[in-house]
Write a structure and sequence with these properties.
Elements: E1 9-14, H1 17-27, E2 31-35, E3 39-44, E4 47-53, E5 65-69, E6 72-76, E7 79-83, H2 85-97, E8 104-109, E9 117-123, E10 129-135, H3 157-165
Parallel strand pairs: 1-4, 7-10
Antiparallel strand pairs: 2-3, 3-4, 5-6, 8-9, 9-10
């Protein structure tokens, strides 16, 4: 069967539907769809995001940790989207203009290397970590260091060699 449309679907737990509705709609720009007393559907930049109210007995434990990624730390687990630069910049500005705090403010990661991208991290009101990115070259989202299709291979050789021989 030929697939004509692929759309990511994610369902997450939230603790206050109204606060979460305002955050995903007003801060992040999601378009609200169906809703009931226990869930809200969002068109989240073309993807299907569903916010489910978490039962009161479901105490949120901090199941997040920081993982090393190219000399930086990222919060895991997290979800987010890869945008074009303009959409990413507009979202970053939208978050700033609403005085919403960044966990990791907008910056460039992997500068000058394959996979260079702008990134930012925030937490939603229920503690779900979100990352939004914009790649300098979107074709490098899945690039590998030694993939012949990846540009600037030599720029990583010294770094890789140093890591291999470090004790």
């Amino acid at each position: 069967m030929k697939q004509t449309h692929a759309q990511f679907h994610l369902a997450i737990a939230v603790f206050d539907l109204e606060v979460s509705r305002q955050f995903y709609r007003d801060v992040l720009g999601g378009e609200e769809g169906r809703s009931t007393d226990n869930l809200i559907d969002f068109n989240f930049y073309g993807h299907h995001l569903v916010l489910h109210i978490a039962p009161e007995q479901c105490a949120r434990t901090s199941g997040t940790f920081e993982s090393k990624f190219h000399d930086e730390k990222v919060t895991v687990p997290h979800f987010g989207l890869n945008f074009d630069r303009q959409t990413w910049s507009e979202l970053a500005e939208r978050i700033k203009s609403r005085n919403y705090p960044f966990v990791d403010p907008p910056h460039v990661r992997m500068a000058g290397k394959p996979g260079e991208h702008a990134t930012l991290f925030i937490m939603d009101p229920s503690g779900n970590a979100l990352e939004f990115k914009a790649f300098k070259n979107h074709d490098e989202v899945f690039s590998k260091i030694f993939d012949p299709k990846t540009r600037d291979l030599s720029s990583l050789e010294a770094e890789v060699a140093a890591a291999v021989y470090q004790t």
